[in-house]
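Hi there. Long-time user, first ticket. I'm pasting a complex I've been working with (about 391 residues overall). I'd like to know whether the download I got is complete or cut off, because the file seemed smaller than I expected. Thanks.
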Amino acid sequence: MNNFKFYSPTYFEFGRETETKAGELVVRFGGKKVLLHYGGGSVVRSGLLARVKKSLEKAGVQYIELGGVVPNPRSGMVYEGIEICRKENVDFILAVGGGSTIDSAKAIAIGVPYEGDFWDFYQGKKIEKALPVATVLTLAATGSEASNSSVITHEKENMKRGTNSDLIRPIFSILNPELTTTLPPYQTACGATDIFAHILERYFTNTKNVEVTDRMCESIMLTIINETPKALANPNDYDARANIMWAGMVAHNDICGVGREQDWATHQLEHELSGLYDVAHGAGLAVMFPAWMKYNMKHDVMRFAQFAVRVFGCQMDFQNPERTAKEGIAKFEQFLLSIGMPIRFKELGAKAEDIPTLVEMLKMDTRSVGSFVKLTKKDAEAIYKLAADVK
Ligand code: NZQ
Ligand code: ZN
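Hi, the file is complete. Here it is re-exported in full:
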């Protein structure tokens, strides 16, 4: 196991009706004037926003609203949010929504105290300061409710990029599984896929003897395999929703990733897909992960066989571990299909003729992609081709 630092200071309020605690928690964590940030209207329609406002009012917290964050959140809204916060002396940002709203809130939080362009932080500049961010989560997927990351698409640059810092981990997150019952089945499945993928990015590692995190990773993957069909069959299944919601947090606050090298190539390959076609991140991952696995399996066949045996219950073929490894990937694809995910370019609406553009968008001359296997441009092209089912 490698040396590591782990700092994950988010306070969680988990369970039914916990959104009524929003006001009290803002006060406890020092907020006086809040930017209430949300998406395209699901929180208005469900009545959640009204309940959160009531809670803020009850606690005597002032707020100003900024709605309209779109999936794959854009820089335009971030600039607008920064301006509003400065003008209104906002000192606390409360995101009510999914990963896109939370990521937009994080971007605003780092932009307000910074004199330059907030995009600098998405180009590698180190974050030194941020307003506190808190969340009321409505979609179990990205783990942004506790992660140190934010991913934004810059419209003018046509670039989707992320930034990381412990300074943007939410100070508190309210997780009420009931809030996820209004999700369309497709979004539920995209979320489950994203959670699974956050584990896979950590699971496929070159670090040896990481038994504790391997076993934690496997338990989260098994949870997603067991609970997602239940939530799809019965959207009001509270316990299935609750297990998925906590799995989403555990999968990406990095408790399953400490002390081991992590990969993240598939997320980078996917970000270009959702950047170019504006598709759901989870669906893009469902298309890219099996392709990445097939391409890189030979790098460590035994790790893929371990995945097949422990996560998908395959029989270990000691004579031919590669057969077991392949079976695990095939079972993963079957699982994705069973929850309604696309697994090839065509089903996602992506086009094989755009592969050169996607490879260019990765800008691999300026950064490395992957760590389990460091990818070259040729590798990236080959993986996109596998995902597109073309030679
Ligand atoms: O905008 P509204 O009207 O709220 O509708 C949203 C949106 O259309 C809807 N929705 C959310 N909660 C709902 C609901 N509809 C009904 N009932 C509810 N309870 O779902 C749609 C998708 O929402 P979005 O926030 O875009 O989804 P998600 O949480 O999957 O976030 C995706 C974004 O997060 C980034 C992705 O790249 C993508 O941009 N990621 C962020 C990470 C992080 N910060 O740590 C890590 C991830 O790997 C990921 O890259
Ligand atoms: Zn993700």
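A couple of notes from our side: The CA atoms of residues 18 and 176 lie 6 Å apart. The mean pLDDT is 97.
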